Amino acid sequence: MSKLIITPSPHIHSGANSANIMLIVVAALLPAVCASIYFFGTTAIILYAVCIISSIVFEAAFNKIASRADTTNDWSALLTGLLLAMNLPPELPLWIAVIGSFVSIVVAKMVFGGLGGNPFNPALVGRVFVLISFPAQMTSYVLPFGVDGVSSATVLSAAKTYMQAGDGLLIGFQLPDIMPMIIGSTSGSL
């Protein structure tokens, strides 16, 4: 007589761990990172570096202060910093990016127990925090290199400007060409 063994899923495991998955996601984001560096230049590189380095430092410092094991080798802090930078305007003051990294890592991730324990995406919590705290800096978008103009509104904020108050119809508004929006040569976040 055979015994029936009941276990929780997953029943088949691929051998992948959190660190491998984080690096795969980072690799998948590299084309977008390269495009943002192409369009925004060294300001994008610096913003990426500040967000990634400060995220890793904040996670390591929190683990040390809280007497927890080091979790920076799971690469989730790297991914959080990368995602945060991608959600910020390229010319954002770097000290605001550091505040966003602190909120992302310490408040939204580590306080809830670290990787897998957080109820919200840490990078987006950091973005929302700096958006609420510094709205002028977070909504000052510059046009990418090679595009005429100094600064510009995003497509959604431009559409909002032309909305009629009562019925929500667009009056006198024409969407920009679709190709610049697809390749990313419009103003906005990295």
What fraction strand?
A: under 5%
Class per helix and strand makeup: mainly alpha
User: What sort of overall outline do the alpha carbons produce when their principal axes are compared?
Assistant: globular
**Low-confidence runs:** none
**In angstroms, what is the radius of gyration?**
21 Å
**Sheet with most strands:** none
- The total count of helices amounts to 8
Q: What share of residues is helical?
A: 40-55%
How far do the termini sit from each other?
62 Å
Mean pLDDT: 84
N-to-C series of helices and strands: HHHHHHHH
Number-wise, the strands total: 0
Summarize the structure.
With 190 residues, this protein is mainly alpha-helical. The protein has 8 helices and no strands.
Could you describe the 3D structure shown?
By secondary structure, the protein is mainly α. It has 8 helices and no strands. α2 packs antiparallel against α3.
What keywords describe this structure?
single chain, mainly alpha, about 190 residues
Give the secondary structure arrangement, pairings included.
Elements: H1 18-40, H2 42-65, H3 76-86, H4 94-107, H5 122-133, H6 135-138, H7 155-161, H8 178-183
Helix pairs in contact: 1-3, 2-3, 2-4, 3-4, 3-5, 4-5
